[in-house]
Each structure stands twice: as structure tokens, then as C-alpha cells.
Amino acid sequence: MNGFSNIDNIYSAVQSVGMRFCFTPDCKFIKIRDSIQDSRNYQLNYKTFSTICSSDTIFGNTKITIDLPNGEEKDIPNVFTPNGDLENDIFKLKDTLNDPCFDFMSIRIYNRWGQLVFEDDDPNFNWDGNLKNGKECKSGSYLIIINGEYGSIYNSEGRREGIAVKDEFWIQLLR
Prior knowledge:
It is a single chain. This protein has one helix and nine strands; from the N terminus they run ββαβββββββ. It is mostly beta strands. The protein is elongated and about 75 Å long. The mean pLDDT is about 75.
């Protein structure tokens, strides 16, 4: 592209230029879309102009269809080794890539005597095997209690529903 310039976020060029639009819906938009049955098509209006041959501003529109991906349940590891070797040093949901619009989770970790050693409400939690004060937890078994929703599917009416997660399991912390 010849003669490209950018002044105060106004882009121009001397020759023909292809245009690309990027539409990124926010959580509010997605939740509104999911509450309206069979409303997956949208019309986007835009305007563009060119300085070639004194062209005028062009107004146009396009239709898009949005299909949000279904979430996936991931395997949860049952052993971790926070020993500083940079391998398996934190406990987290395996390959976590959560959807901030739909996923919520409460995780509580207890030692074998029932004392709370870690808590978080973030699906992207990371536990390094330490207490909040930084003191290391000892090697041993720890009870994990998870409640919330993680991942999603579309129901028979075409509405998105979170996948309920309620689980209790033990993990081994090895130092």
C-alpha cells in the first residue's frame, strides 16, 4: 500500500485498499443475544470514505451470524509438585480457558484436618501450595471442593446454558 498515513486514528491511502472489520461483542451483548430465542443474525452498519477521485463517504451494512462455541469440561490433575522445578508447580484446572461471560466458580481447599488453606472465586485460579501468608503447606492429601458453572452448551431452545460443576475430590501435594 503506497501513501499510507495515520493521523489521529484516521487512516488513508493513495491506492485501493481492502477493508476488514472486526466485531467483538461484550458479555452484555452475548447475554442479551442468548436471552432472545433464535436471534443469531445481526446487521452491522458502517461508513467508509476514500480520497481517491474525490469519492464521497460510503454508508453500508452487512449481516453476520454469531454462533458462540460450546464450552468443554477439562481433566483436573490429582497430583501437583510445587517444588520450584517449573513443572507442575501450581494446581489449576487443566488448560483453563474460561468464558468470563458465563463461567463462575467457587473453589475451597482443605487440609486433611478440615482447615481451609486456599479459597478463590476465579475459574482461572492458581494454587501454589502455600497459605495466604506465604507459608508452605506440607506434603499430603488436600480436599478440593468446587461449585459453580464452567463451560456451556446450547439447550433445545437455542439458549446457552452453563454446565453445572459441583465436585469434591482429593489431590496429593508432593514437595
